[in-house]
Amino acid sequence: MEGTRLQKIERLIQKDLSEIFLLQTKQMPGVMVSVTRVRISPDLSVAKAYLSIFPSEKGKELLDNINQNKKSVRYELGLRIGKQVRRIPELAFFLDDSVDYLENIDHLLNQ
């Protein structure tokens, strides 16, 4: 039962974070941020969000910017999910480079 609840909250946070980043990146043409997965601690205090950033050259710079504005992202998330959860979890953002890894493997296989 607890696992199902955690999965529902992870999906809820992933959906709402995706919408938040979609609205924020509309002002930056040519940049796309997607939330690939969210993992939340069993006590619902920390949520780890893995972000895929396109173009990947700007990934590190954008991730640093997102980490600096973590409080405002958490506030926006709280406005959206405040009715469904008691506490808004602390957010930790990580770069998901699995797409770059797959492209590298594909490139190596084509050689």
SSE layout and pairings?
Layout: H1 2-25, E1 32-40, E2 46-54, H2 59-68, H3 70-81, E3 90-95, H4 98-110
Parallel strand pairs: 2-3
Antiparallel strand pairs: 1-2
Q: Brief overview, please?
A:
This protein has 111 residues and is α+β, with helices and mostly antiparallel strands. 53% of the residues lie in helices and 22% in strands.
Task: Describe the 3D structure.
- With 111 residues, the protein is α+β, with helices and mostly antiparallel strands.
- It has a single domain, classed as K homology (KH) domain (GMP Synthetase, Chain A, domain 3, 2-Layer Sandwich), CATH 3.30.300.20.
- The protein has four helices and three strands; from the N terminus they run H-E-E-H-H-E-H.
- It has a three-stranded mixed β-sheet.
- Strand 1 and strand 2 form a beta hairpin.
- The chain is globular, with a radius of gyration of 15 Å.
Keywords:
about 55% helix, ribosomal small subunit binding, cytoplasm, Ribosome-binding factor A, 3-stranded mixed beta sheet, KH_dom-like_a/b, about 110 residues, GMP Synthetase, Chain A, domain 3, alpha+beta, 4 helices, globular
CATH architecture group name: 2-Layer Sandwich
Rounded mean pLDDT score: 89
Amount of beta strand: 15-25%
Going across the biggest sheet, name each strand in turn: 1-2-3
Helix content: 40-55%
Radius of gyration: 15 Å
Order of helices and strands: HEEHHEH
- Write down the CATH topology: GMP Synthetase, Chain A, domain 3
Global shape: globular
- What does the largest sheet look like? 3 strands, mixed
Total helical segments: 4
Give the distance, in angstroms, between the N- and C-terminal Cα atoms: 48 Å
**Count of distinct strands:** 3
CATH superfamily: K homology (KH) domain
Uncertain regions: pLDDT < 50 for 5+ in a row? Answer: none
Specify the CATH class: Alpha Beta
Domains (count): 1
Structural class of the helix and strand makeup?
alpha+beta
GO cellular component, one term: cytosol
GO molecular function: ribosomal small subunit binding
Keywords: Cytoplasm, Ribosome biogenesis
Subcellular location: Cytoplasm
